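BUG: 3D viewer hangs when loading the predicted structure for this chain

Environment: internal workstation, default settings.
Expected: structure renders.
Actual: progress bar stalls at 90%.

Input used:
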Amino acid sequence: MKKFFALALIAILTLTTTAFAATYRYDGDDIVFNYDENIFEIVEDDHTDDEDTVVLAAKDKSWGQTYVRVYVAELEDGEKFPTMEDFAAMPDTTVEQMETWAGFKNVFTYTLENDDDTTQTFFIAPVYDDDGEIDDSLTVEIGVTKLDDDKAMLRDDAISEIVNTLKVDD
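Structure tokens produced before the viewer hung:
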């Protein structure tokens, strides 16, 4: 019986915690993702006819510079999605291709280590239309200050929660 009450208490606490974690949905022209407004805030929201850009910044100052920039650009007629060689031509970068990332396929990634103790990691993914043709280019830039392991793990988990809900709608 004690075990039952202990499990019931854990379930109640879990549900209560979830109920107070206010997750909000942002739905722009193309970009759809969820974020917790207690942790991140939208600091830039730019939408034009051929692009959709949103930048979220972390509210916790102890995380240093932490932001997620999501950019979707419509490919013009005849414009090709860049190749891995195009990205590899950039100085001081190592480019990798990932089969899948956050639900997207054929993603390129590269990281820049800056002199000011910050790191920028870029994920560039093709966005396919219903016919399987590349329609848009998605870029997700994650900028972070180097932190100790505990804070970095909390921050990275919060960023992952946003990225894992990322969708591009036409």
